[in-house]
Design brief:
81 residues, alpha+beta, three-stranded antiparallel beta sheet, 27% strand, flat
Length: 81
């Protein structure tokens, strides 16, 4: 199993990336209910840059659920503080 490092940054300032980084905009998300070999959901996201070039990102539904849980936890924590 592959590991994913998750970093939570406090505050309202997003990280700054190098000038050579390409900013991509999510254009479409497709969820295939049983797209993984394990029959778990598969999420395909189509991205586009400012020049119109298209890119493709694929992740398991479980990864998306994990990231959503982290975000939900941060939001709940911030309500308490």
């Amino acid at each position: 199993m592959q590991k994913l490092e998750i970093e939570i940054i406090n505050g309202k300032i997003a990280p700054r990336y190098s000038i050579s980084t390409v900013q991509l905009h999510a254009e479409k998300a497709i969820i295939t209910e049983k797209g993984m070999v394990s029959n778990d959901p598969l999420v395909d996201i189509t991205l586009k840059d400012d020049q119109g070039n298209k890119y493709f990102f694929m992740m398991s539904g479980n990864l998306l659920i994990m990231l959503a849980s982290v975000i939900r936890g941060v939001m709940e924590r911030d309500k308490i503080e």
